[in-house]
Amino acid sequence: MPAHSGAVMGSLQQSLWAGEGSSFQRRPKLCTTRERPDLVRLATVRACKAASIGGGLVAGGPPPSIPISIGGGDDATGFKDFSLKDADPEMHGLIGKEKQRQSRCLELIASENFTSRAVMEAVGSCLTNKYSEGLPGKRYYGGNEYIDQIESLCQRRALEAFRLDEEKWGVNVQPLSGSPANFEVYTALLKPHDRIMGLDLPHGGHLSHGFMTPKRRVSGTSIYFESMPYQLDEQTGYVDYDMLEKTANLFRPKLIIAGASAYPRDFDYPRMRKIADSIGAFLMMDMAHISGLVAAGVV
Fold first, then answer.
1. Core-most of 58, 195, 275, 290, by most CB within 10 Å?
2. CA pair distance 265, 293, nearest whole angstrom
């Protein structure tokens, strides 16, 4: 099997070819330009039958996905696929204790409900092995044909759940939680140090909407942007919209956030829309905590 190789910092440039019926030998070594065969090894790898592989792992383009079969079990490499219990008894024991705690205790944090078996199977699947930076059809790595299908399926289902027209709406299902999702919106709409207004954290707001103390900027939002909180009327427990309007006229934010973490009431969206429009600001709704109610049409 002819091979030409070269090494760059942190990456391998390697062109491969395998004709029909050919196979990789056990533990071959791909030499780099510095003659360090120990840097890169292919161990117990056999090309699939009738494989015809032609590709290059080169800078500036995604590498090809090469179909191969890998020997399993205890082979000459000494590799064994242990269970967590056998590989790391200490970690296995701690996870078991947490499982017992969850089953024996009454959890009063609503968002920590039990995850279904189906979800556990999905998040604990072989998908964890795959790099998938980018968007469907626009990845930086090869071998993402099924990842693309999965992400596109999630996007379609999200739009259907909220009854949104895919011709008018887009959806990004990649953020792992609410805080990075919020920051994604900020960086899409704002420039560094643009001004943001969100509900004050001690009044039920979310940390990702910005929070500062007299001595330091606690939230990353308040580090990369300039944040000013609006607050509740402590006599009524409702957002003080009159004060919000006055503060917005003085502070002139580029973005106003409707949404909270520990505020058990709905927002006056028409009033907030009017305030935002009056100063030329974006109005963002962070509905992470009520998204299920929105999808169900309750609110």
1. 275
2. 13
192 and 284 in a single domain? The answer is: yes
CA dist 269 to 2, 56, 283, Å? 66, 54, 9
Q: Give 144-201 pLDDT, tens digit per residue.
A: 999 999 999 999 999 999 999 999 999 999 999 999 999 999 999 999 999 999 999 9
With tokens 């890998």, the residue in question is 70
Do 121 and 19 fall within a single domain? Answer: no
Helices 241-251 and 269-279 cross at an angle (nearest 10°) of 20
CA–CA dist 239, 234 (Å, integer): 9
Flag whether 78 is in a domain. no
| 153 and 56, same domain (yes or no) | no
Are 182 and 291 found together in one domain?
yes
Structural domain containing residue 212: 178-295
Same domain, 139 and 122: no
Main-chain dihedrals φ then ψ at residue 202, nearest 5 degrees: -65, -15
Cβ neighbours of 221 (radius 10 Å): 24
